[in-house]
Amino acid sequence: MKARCLGVRIRTLAGMGAHLQDMGPRVPTSGGARVTGTVYDVQAINNQVRCVFTNTVPTDSFRGAGRPETAYIMERLFDQAALAFRMGRDEVRRRNYVRPEQMPYRNVVGNVIDRGDFPATQAMALRIADWEAFPARRAEARARERLRGIGLGYFIEASGGMPSEWARLRIAPDGRAEIRVGTFSHGQGHETAFAQIVAERLGLDPKDIVFIQGDTDEVEQGTGTGGSRSSQMGGVAVLRASDAVADKARRIAAHLLEAAPEDVELADGCFRVAGTDLVLDWPRVLVAAHDPAQLPEGELPGLDEALTYMRDTECNFPNGCHVAEVEVDPETGAVTLVRYAAVDDVGNVINPMLVHGQMHGGIMTGIGHALMEEARYDPESGQFLTSTFQDYCMPRAGDACDFDLALNVVPTPTNELGVKGAGEGDACGAPPAIVSAVCDALALAHLDMPLTPEKVWQAIAARGAEARLAAE
Q1: Does residue 224 sit in the same domain as residue 328?
Q2: pLDDT one-digit tens code per residue, 361-379
Q3: Which of 158, 141, 97 is CA-nearest to residue 319?
Q4: Residues 136, 153: one domain?
Q5: 238, CA 20 to 30 Å: which among 43, 122, 427, 434?
Q6: What pLDDT does 151 receive?
Protein backbone atom coordinates (compact mmCIF):
# COMPACT_ATOMS: atom_id res chain seq x y z
CA MET A 1 0.00 0.00 0.00
CA LYS A 2 1.69 3.20 -1.19
CA ALA A 3 -0.73 5.73 0.40
CA ARG A 4 0.35 8.44 -2.05
CA CYS A 5 -1.74 11.58 -2.37
CA LEU A 6 -2.78 11.98 -6.02
CA GLY A 7 -5.07 14.98 -5.81
CA VAL A 8 -6.77 17.47 -3.50
CA ARG A 9 -9.96 19.47 -3.85
CA ILE A 10 -10.44 22.50 -1.58
CA ARG A 11 -13.49 24.76 -1.31
CA THR A 12 -13.22 27.87 0.87
CA LEU A 13 -15.93 30.37 1.82
CA ALA A 14 -14.12 33.39 3.28
CA GLY A 15 -16.04 36.07 5.16
CA MET A 16 -14.77 39.56 4.36
CA GLY A 17 -17.02 41.47 6.74
CA ALA A 18 -19.27 44.32 5.71
CA HIS A 19 -16.68 45.88 3.38
CA LEU A 20 -13.23 45.15 2.01
CA GLN A 21 -10.26 46.39 3.97
CA ASP A 22 -6.68 46.52 2.68
CA MET A 23 -5.48 42.91 2.32
CA GLY A 24 -8.69 41.19 3.43
CA PRO A 25 -9.46 39.35 0.17
CA ARG A 26 -5.78 38.62 -0.47
CA VAL A 27 -5.42 36.52 2.70
CA PRO A 28 -7.59 33.52 1.67
CA THR A 29 -6.70 33.83 -2.02
CA SER A 30 -3.17 34.65 -3.18
CA GLY A 31 -1.78 34.93 0.36
CA GLY A 32 -2.27 31.24 1.03
CA ALA A 33 -2.36 30.03 -2.56
CA ARG A 34 1.37 30.66 -3.02
CA VAL A 35 2.05 27.54 -0.96
CA THR A 36 -0.89 25.42 -2.10
CA GLY A 37 0.09 21.80 -1.57
CA THR A 38 2.58 22.96 1.09
CA VAL A 39 5.42 20.42 1.50
CA TYR A 40 3.76 17.54 -0.32
CA ASP A 41 4.46 16.29 -3.85
CA VAL A 42 0.96 16.86 -5.18
CA GLN A 43 0.39 18.48 -8.57
CA ALA A 44 -3.36 17.82 -9.01
CA ILE A 45 -5.02 20.41 -6.75
CA ASN A 46 -8.30 22.18 -7.37
CA ASN A 47 -8.60 25.11 -4.96
CA GLN A 48 -11.57 27.45 -5.18
CA VAL A 49 -12.15 30.41 -2.87
CA ARG A 50 -15.27 32.54 -2.62
CA CYS A 51 -14.96 35.81 -0.72
CA VAL A 52 -18.33 36.90 0.62
CA PHE A 53 -19.63 40.00 2.37
CA THR A 54 -21.18 39.54 5.81
CA ASN A 55 -22.73 41.85 8.38
CA THR A 56 -19.61 41.69 10.58
CA VAL A 57 -16.47 43.76 10.97
CA PRO A 58 -14.00 43.60 8.07
CA THR A 59 -11.08 41.18 8.11
CA ASP A 60 -7.45 41.88 7.35
CA SER A 61 -4.01 40.28 7.43
CA PHE A 62 -2.46 38.85 10.58
CA ARG A 63 0.60 36.74 11.34
CA GLY A 64 0.92 34.31 8.44
CA ALA A 65 -1.84 35.89 6.33
CA GLY A 66 -3.31 32.86 4.56
CA ARG A 67 -0.45 30.43 5.04
CA PRO A 68 -1.72 29.13 8.43
CA GLU A 69 -5.03 28.24 6.81
CA THR A 70 -3.31 26.53 3.88
CA ALA A 71 -1.09 24.46 6.18
CA TYR A 72 -4.05 23.63 8.42
CA ILE A 73 -6.11 22.28 5.52
CA MET A 74 -3.35 20.01 4.25
CA GLU A 75 -2.36 18.74 7.69
CA ARG A 76 -5.91 17.91 8.70
CA LEU A 77 -6.40 16.07 5.40
CA PHE A 78 -3.27 14.00 5.97
CA ASP A 79 -4.51 13.09 9.46
CA GLN A 80 -7.74 11.85 7.85
CA ALA A 81 -5.71 9.86 5.33
CA ALA A 82 -3.77 8.23 8.16
CA LEU A 83 -7.05 7.15 9.78
CA ALA A 84 -8.45 5.87 6.48
CA PHE A 85 -5.35 3.80 5.71
CA ARG A 86 -4.80 2.79 9.35
CA MET A 87 -1.33 4.21 9.08
CA GLY A 88 0.80 6.35 11.37
CA ARG A 89 0.36 10.07 10.87
CA ASP A 90 4.13 10.42 10.63
CA GLU A 91 4.39 7.69 8.00
CA VAL A 92 1.69 9.01 5.67
CA ARG A 93 3.45 12.36 5.61
CA ARG A 94 6.86 10.78 5.12
CA ARG A 95 5.61 9.00 1.99
CA ASN A 96 4.31 12.22 0.45
CA TYR A 97 6.92 14.88 1.17
CA VAL A 98 8.74 16.60 -1.66
CA ARG A 99 12.16 14.99 -1.41
CA PRO A 100 15.44 16.94 -1.27
CA GLU A 101 16.54 15.51 -4.61
CA GLN A 102 13.43 17.06 -6.21
CA MET A 103 14.62 20.57 -5.30
CA PRO A 104 14.22 23.11 -6.74
CA TYR A 105 10.57 22.05 -6.84
CA ARG A 106 7.92 23.95 -8.78
CA ASN A 107 4.67 23.70 -6.85
CA VAL A 108 1.22 23.53 -8.35
CA VAL A 109 0.85 27.33 -8.63
CA GLY A 110 4.27 27.78 -10.21
CA ASN A 111 6.33 28.95 -7.24
CA VAL A 112 9.76 27.36 -7.02
CA ILE A 113 10.66 25.97 -3.61
CA ASP A 114 14.39 26.50 -3.76
CA ARG A 115 15.64 24.20 -1.03
CA GLY A 116 14.50 22.17 1.99
CA ASP A 117 14.74 18.77 3.64
CA PHE A 118 11.27 18.00 4.93
CA PRO A 119 11.84 14.32 5.87
CA ALA A 120 14.91 15.24 7.93
CA THR A 121 13.10 18.09 9.66
CA GLN A 122 10.23 15.77 10.63
CA ALA A 123 12.69 13.14 11.88
CA MET A 124 14.38 15.73 14.11
CA ALA A 125 11.05 16.90 15.52
CA LEU A 126 9.83 13.37 16.28
CA ARG A 127 13.09 12.56 18.00
CA ILE A 128 12.98 15.68 20.18
CA ALA A 129 9.32 14.99 21.02
CA ASP A 130 10.11 11.37 21.94
CA TRP A 131 7.31 10.29 19.62
CA GLU A 132 8.00 6.56 19.95
CA ALA A 133 7.61 6.57 23.75
CA PHE A 134 4.25 8.34 23.68
CA PRO A 135 2.12 5.21 24.43
CA ALA A 136 3.72 4.96 27.88
CA ARG A 137 2.90 8.61 28.61
CA ARG A 138 -0.68 8.05 27.43
CA ALA A 139 -1.07 5.06 29.76
CA GLU A 140 0.28 7.05 32.71
CA ALA A 141 -2.19 9.86 31.99
CA ARG A 142 -5.06 7.39 31.75
CA ALA A 143 -4.18 6.19 35.25
CA ARG A 144 -4.77 9.79 36.38
CA GLU A 145 -8.08 9.88 34.48
CA ARG A 146 -6.74 12.22 31.83
CA LEU A 147 -6.96 11.81 28.07
CA ARG A 148 -3.56 12.32 26.44
CA GLY A 149 -2.95 12.89 22.75
CA ILE A 150 -0.10 13.72 20.42
CA GLY A 151 -0.18 15.38 17.02
CA LEU A 152 2.05 16.88 14.41
CA GLY A 153 1.80 19.59 11.83
CA TYR A 154 4.14 20.59 9.03
CA PHE A 155 4.09 24.04 7.47
CA ILE A 156 5.82 25.89 4.68
CA GLU A 157 5.80 29.65 4.44
CA ALA A 158 6.32 31.99 1.49
CA SER A 159 8.30 34.84 3.03
CA GLY A 160 9.74 37.97 1.50
CA GLY A 161 7.31 40.86 1.52
CA MET A 162 8.14 43.87 -0.64
CA PRO A 163 10.97 43.16 -3.11
CA SER A 164 13.29 46.09 -2.38
CA GLU A 165 15.02 47.60 0.65
CA TRP A 166 17.36 50.51 1.32
CA ALA A 167 20.31 50.62 3.67
CA ARG A 168 23.15 53.01 4.44
CA LEU A 169 26.33 52.37 6.38
CA ARG A 170 28.55 55.21 7.52
CA ILE A 171 31.71 54.88 9.59
CA ALA A 172 32.37 58.13 11.43
CA PRO A 173 35.88 59.48 12.03
CA ASP A 174 35.70 58.28 15.66
CA GLY A 175 35.14 54.70 14.47
CA ARG A 176 31.42 54.44 15.17
CA ALA A 177 29.51 52.62 12.46
CA GLU A 178 26.01 53.94 11.81
CA ILE A 179 23.44 51.59 10.24
CA ARG A 180 20.39 53.16 8.64
CA VAL A 181 17.84 50.79 7.14
CA GLY A 182 14.29 51.01 5.83
CA THR A 183 12.89 48.12 7.86
CA PHE A 184 11.50 48.78 11.34
CA SER A 185 12.07 46.68 14.43
CA HIS A 186 9.14 46.43 16.82
CA GLY A 187 10.70 43.71 18.93
CA GLN A 188 12.45 41.44 16.43
CA GLY A 189 15.97 42.56 17.40
CA HIS A 190 17.13 44.22 14.17
CA GLU A 191 19.59 46.29 16.16
CA THR A 192 21.30 43.03 17.15
CA ALA A 193 21.08 41.08 13.89
CA PHE A 194 22.13 43.92 11.60
CA ALA A 195 24.98 44.90 13.91
CA GLN A 196 26.20 41.30 13.77
CA ILE A 197 26.25 41.41 9.97
CA VAL A 198 28.33 44.60 9.96
CA ALA A 199 30.63 43.45 12.75
CA GLU A 200 31.36 40.12 11.11
CA ARG A 201 31.86 41.63 7.66
CA LEU A 202 34.10 44.53 8.73
CA GLY A 203 35.71 43.17 11.88
CA LEU A 204 34.28 45.94 14.07
CA ASP A 205 33.29 45.77 17.73
CA PRO A 206 29.47 45.51 18.00
CA LYS A 207 29.46 48.09 20.80
CA ASP A 208 30.75 50.64 18.28
CA ILE A 209 27.77 50.09 15.95
CA VAL A 210 24.76 52.42 16.13
CA PHE A 211 21.37 51.42 14.69
CA ILE A 212 19.08 54.14 13.31
CA GLN A 213 15.52 53.48 12.13
CA GLY A 214 12.12 55.11 11.80
CA ASP A 215 13.41 58.67 11.40
CA THR A 216 12.59 60.23 8.04
CA ASP A 217 15.34 62.80 8.52
CA GLU A 218 17.81 59.92 8.64
CA VAL A 219 16.22 57.13 6.56
CA GLU A 220 15.65 58.22 2.98
CA GLN A 221 13.41 55.35 1.94
CA GLY A 222 12.31 51.87 2.89
CA THR A 223 9.44 49.41 2.77
CA GLY A 224 9.17 48.52 6.44
CA THR A 225 8.68 45.23 8.18
CA GLY A 226 6.21 42.58 7.10
CA GLY A 227 6.10 39.24 5.34
CA SER A 228 9.07 37.96 7.39
CA ARG A 229 11.32 40.09 5.18
CA SER A 230 13.66 41.97 7.49
CA SER A 231 16.73 39.72 7.52
CA GLN A 232 16.45 38.59 3.93
CA MET A 233 15.85 42.14 2.65
CA GLY A 234 17.16 44.64 5.23
CA GLY A 235 19.90 42.23 6.26
CA VAL A 236 21.10 41.70 2.69
CA ALA A 237 20.96 45.47 2.04
CA VAL A 238 23.10 46.02 5.15
CA LEU A 239 25.50 43.29 3.99
CA ARG A 240 25.86 44.90 0.56
CA ALA A 241 26.41 48.33 2.11
CA SER A 242 29.06 46.73 4.35
CA ASP A 243 30.72 45.23 1.27
CA ALA A 244 30.74 48.63 -0.43
CA VAL A 245 32.38 50.23 2.63
CA ALA A 246 34.88 47.37 2.84
CA ASP A 247 35.78 47.74 -0.85
CA LYS A 248 36.48 51.44 -0.46
CA ALA A 249 38.44 50.93 2.76
CA ARG A 250 40.49 48.25 1.02
CA ARG A 251 41.32 50.66 -1.83
CA ILE A 252 42.47 53.26 0.70
CA ALA A 253 44.56 50.70 2.59
CA ALA A 254 46.11 49.50 -0.66
CA HIS A 255 47.07 53.08 -1.52
CA LEU A 256 48.71 53.53 1.89
CA LEU A 257 50.51 50.19 1.62
CA GLU A 258 51.49 50.77 -2.01
CA ALA A 259 49.79 47.56 -3.06
CA ALA A 260 47.07 46.54 -5.49
CA PRO A 261 43.55 46.57 -3.95
CA GLU A 262 42.99 42.97 -4.99
CA ASP A 263 46.01 41.95 -2.91
CA VAL A 264 44.65 43.47 0.30
CA GLU A 265 42.63 41.27 2.68
CA LEU A 266 40.31 42.49 5.41
CA ALA A 267 40.28 40.02 8.28
CA ASP A 268 40.06 40.32 12.07
CA GLY A 269 39.69 44.08 11.78
CA CYS A 270 42.98 44.54 9.90
CA PHE A 271 43.97 45.22 6.29
CA ARG A 272 46.83 42.99 5.23
CA VAL A 273 48.72 42.54 1.99
CA ALA A 274 48.41 38.84 1.25
CA GLY A 275 51.59 36.87 1.82
CA THR A 276 53.41 39.75 3.57
CA ASP A 277 53.67 41.33 7.01
CA LEU A 278 52.32 44.66 5.72
CA VAL A 279 49.24 45.50 7.80
CA LEU A 280 47.04 48.45 8.79
CA ASP A 281 44.30 48.61 11.41
CA TRP A 282 40.95 50.36 11.10
CA PRO A 283 41.94 53.56 12.98
CA ARG A 284 44.75 54.24 10.51
CA VAL A 285 42.48 53.65 7.51
CA LEU A 286 39.78 55.88 9.04
CA VAL A 287 42.21 58.76 9.42
CA ALA A 288 43.16 58.46 5.76
CA ALA A 289 39.52 58.06 4.68
CA HIS A 290 38.70 61.52 6.05
CA ASP A 291 41.88 63.24 4.85
CA PRO A 292 41.77 64.17 1.14
CA ALA A 293 45.56 64.34 1.07
CA GLN A 294 45.85 60.64 1.90
CA LEU A 295 43.19 59.33 -0.48
CA PRO A 296 43.79 57.59 -3.80
CA GLU A 297 43.09 59.69 -6.87
CA GLY A 298 39.37 59.93 -7.58
CA GLU A 299 38.18 58.88 -4.11
CA LEU A 300 35.94 61.21 -2.11
CA PRO A 301 36.48 61.62 1.65
CA GLY A 302 34.51 59.43 4.05
CA LEU A 303 33.26 55.87 4.34
CA ASP A 304 29.57 56.26 3.67
CA GLU A 305 27.67 53.95 1.33
CA ALA A 306 23.94 53.73 0.58
CA LEU A 307 22.09 51.42 -1.78
CA THR A 308 18.76 49.85 -2.60
CA TYR A 309 18.70 46.06 -2.78
CA MET A 310 16.21 44.55 -5.24
CA ARG A 311 15.78 40.79 -5.07
CA ASP A 312 15.27 38.73 -8.21
CA THR A 313 12.93 36.12 -6.70
CA GLU A 314 9.43 36.53 -5.31
CA CYS A 315 10.01 34.79 -2.00
CA ASN A 316 11.72 31.93 -0.20
CA PHE A 317 10.31 29.08 1.79
CA PRO A 318 10.97 28.60 5.51
CA ASN A 319 9.31 25.49 6.87
CA GLY A 320 9.07 23.36 9.98
CA CYS A 321 7.57 20.39 11.77
CA HIS A 322 5.79 20.83 15.10
CA VAL A 323 4.73 18.13 17.56
CA ALA A 324 2.20 18.96 20.29
CA GLU A 325 1.17 16.81 23.23
CA VAL A 326 -1.94 17.58 25.26
CA GLU A 327 -3.97 16.31 28.17
CA VAL A 328 -7.73 16.69 28.30
CA ASP A 329 -9.79 16.69 31.49
CA PRO A 330 -12.86 14.62 30.56
CA GLU A 331 -14.92 16.22 33.34
CA THR A 332 -14.46 19.81 32.13
CA GLY A 333 -13.13 19.60 28.58
CA ALA A 334 -10.12 21.71 29.53
CA VAL A 335 -7.10 21.17 27.28
CA THR A 336 -3.60 21.46 28.74
CA LEU A 337 -0.56 21.67 26.52
CA VAL A 338 2.01 19.45 28.28
CA ARG A 339 4.83 19.04 25.73
CA TYR A 340 5.78 20.91 22.58
CA ALA A 341 8.63 20.32 20.13
CA ALA A 342 9.37 22.30 16.99
CA VAL A 343 12.09 22.12 14.39
CA ASP A 344 12.25 24.97 11.89
CA ASP A 345 14.31 25.51 8.76
CA VAL A 346 14.89 29.26 8.42
CA GLY A 347 18.06 28.87 6.40
CA ASN A 348 21.25 30.27 7.88
CA VAL A 349 20.78 31.68 11.36
CA ILE A 350 22.21 35.11 12.18
CA ASN A 351 21.27 34.97 15.86
CA PRO A 352 19.72 31.78 17.32
CA MET A 353 18.25 33.60 20.32
CA LEU A 354 16.32 35.99 18.06
CA VAL A 355 15.03 33.09 15.94
CA HIS A 356 13.93 31.20 19.04
CA GLY A 357 12.12 34.32 20.20
CA GLN A 358 10.24 34.43 16.91
CA MET A 359 9.43 30.73 17.29
CA HIS A 360 8.07 31.29 20.79
CA GLY A 361 5.88 34.15 19.59
CA GLY A 362 4.57 32.23 16.61
CA ILE A 363 3.74 29.16 18.68
CA MET A 364 1.88 31.31 21.22
CA THR A 365 -0.09 32.85 18.36
CA GLY A 366 -0.96 29.35 17.14
CA ILE A 367 -2.00 28.26 20.63
CA GLY A 368 -4.47 31.13 20.67
CA HIS A 369 -5.87 30.14 17.29
CA ALA A 370 -6.18 26.47 18.19
CA LEU A 371 -7.61 26.67 21.69
CA MET A 372 -9.27 29.96 22.53
CA GLU A 373 -9.42 32.91 20.14
CA GLU A 374 -12.80 33.50 18.51
CA ALA A 375 -14.76 36.49 17.26
CA ARG A 376 -18.31 35.82 18.42
CA TYR A 377 -21.60 37.54 17.60
CA ASP A 378 -25.03 37.24 19.14
CA PRO A 379 -27.06 35.17 16.62
CA GLU A 380 -30.23 37.18 17.24
CA SER A 381 -29.04 40.79 17.35
CA GLY A 382 -25.68 40.60 15.61
CA GLN A 383 -24.06 42.28 18.59
CA PHE A 384 -20.29 41.72 18.67
CA LEU A 385 -19.66 39.85 21.93
CA THR A 386 -15.86 39.76 22.00
CA SER A 387 -15.03 43.39 21.30
CA THR A 388 -12.59 43.86 24.20
CA PHE A 389 -9.77 41.79 25.67
CA GLN A 390 -11.97 41.22 28.70
CA ASP A 391 -14.14 39.05 26.43
CA TYR A 392 -11.76 37.97 23.68
CA CYS A 393 -9.53 35.22 25.04
CA MET A 394 -5.84 35.71 24.27
CA PRO A 395 -3.13 33.17 25.16
CA ARG A 396 -0.96 33.89 28.17
CA ALA A 397 2.17 32.28 29.55
CA GLY A 398 0.13 29.89 31.68
CA ASP A 399 -1.53 28.48 28.57
CA ALA A 400 1.79 27.16 27.27
CA CYS A 401 4.43 24.70 28.39
CA ASP A 402 8.17 24.64 27.87
CA PHE A 403 9.05 24.53 24.18
CA ASP A 404 11.78 22.19 22.91
CA LEU A 405 13.13 24.01 19.86
CA ALA A 406 15.73 23.13 17.24
CA LEU A 407 16.81 24.33 13.81
CA ASN A 408 17.48 22.31 10.69
CA VAL A 409 19.74 24.67 8.75
CA VAL A 410 19.18 24.38 4.99
CA PRO A 411 20.48 27.65 3.48
CA THR A 412 18.55 29.25 0.65
CA PRO A 413 20.47 30.16 -2.51
CA THR A 414 18.19 33.17 -3.12
CA ASN A 415 20.28 35.67 -1.11
CA GLU A 416 23.87 36.15 0.03
CA LEU A 417 23.06 35.53 3.68
CA GLY A 418 21.26 32.26 2.95
CA VAL A 419 18.46 33.31 5.31
CA LYS A 420 14.76 32.57 5.10
CA GLY A 421 11.97 34.31 6.99
CA ALA A 422 11.43 33.43 10.66
CA GLY A 423 8.56 35.61 11.83
CA GLU A 424 5.37 33.84 10.80
CA GLY A 425 6.00 30.16 10.22
CA ASP A 426 5.35 28.90 13.73
CA ALA A 427 1.88 30.45 13.71
CA CYS A 428 1.30 28.11 10.75
CA GLY A 429 2.68 24.97 12.42
CA ALA A 430 1.09 25.20 15.85
CA PRO A 431 -2.68 25.05 15.04
CA PRO A 432 -2.66 21.77 13.08
CA ALA A 433 -0.27 20.13 15.57
CA ILE A 434 -2.45 21.07 18.55
CA VAL A 435 -5.75 20.12 16.88
CA SER A 436 -4.19 16.83 15.79
CA ALA A 437 -3.19 16.16 19.40
CA VAL A 438 -6.61 16.96 20.84
CA CYS A 439 -8.38 14.80 18.25
CA ASP A 440 -5.95 12.00 19.07
CA ALA A 441 -6.75 12.34 22.78
CA LEU A 442 -10.49 12.21 22.11
CA ALA A 443 -10.24 9.48 19.44
CA LEU A 444 -12.12 11.77 17.04
CA ALA A 445 -11.44 12.30 13.36
CA HIS A 446 -11.82 16.06 13.55
CA LEU A 447 -13.03 18.96 15.69
CA ASP A 448 -13.08 22.53 14.48
CA MET A 449 -11.04 25.28 16.09
CA PRO A 450 -11.06 26.89 18.57
CA LEU A 451 -11.06 23.86 20.87
CA THR A 452 -12.55 25.62 23.86
CA PRO A 453 -13.38 23.59 27.00
CA GLU A 454 -17.08 23.88 26.14
CA LYS A 455 -16.61 22.48 22.64
CA VAL A 456 -14.33 19.67 23.82
CA TRP A 457 -16.69 18.76 26.68
CA GLN A 458 -19.62 18.64 24.26
CA ALA A 459 -17.65 16.31 21.98
CA ILE A 460 -16.86 14.01 24.91
CA ALA A 461 -20.49 14.07 26.07
CA ALA A 462 -21.77 13.32 22.55
CA ARG A 463 -19.41 10.39 22.24
CA GLY A 464 -20.61 9.06 25.59
CA ALA A 465 -24.24 9.38 24.50
CA GLU A 466 -23.49 7.52 21.29
CA ALA A 467 -21.80 4.74 23.24
CA ARG A 468 -24.83 4.41 25.55
CA LEU A 469 -27.22 4.25 22.60
CA ALA A 470 -25.07 1.62 20.92
CA ALA A 471 -25.06 -0.45 24.11
CA GLU A 472 -28.84 -0.26 24.35
Answers
A1: no
A2: 999 999 999 999 999 999 8
A3: 158
A4: yes
A5: 427
A6: 98
Q: Nearest Cα to 253, choosing from 230, 279, 227?
A: 279
What is the pLDDT at residue 385? 93
79-132 pLDDT, tens digit per residue, is 999 999 999 999 999 999 999 999 999 999 999 999 999 999 999 999 999 999
Does 41 map to a domain? no
* Structural domains of the chain, count: 2
Task: Look up the domain containing 196 and give its range.
Answer: 164-310
